[in-house]
Amino acid sequence: MKKRMPVSTIMTKDLITVNHTDDLTTAEKLFKTHNIRHIPVVSGKEIIGMLSFTDLLRISYADAVDEYETDVDTMVYNMFTIEQVMAKALVKVSPQTTIKEVAEILAEKEFHALPIVDNSELVGIVTTTDLIEYLLEQY
Question: Would the pLDDT of 96 be above 60?
Answer without folding.
Answer: yes
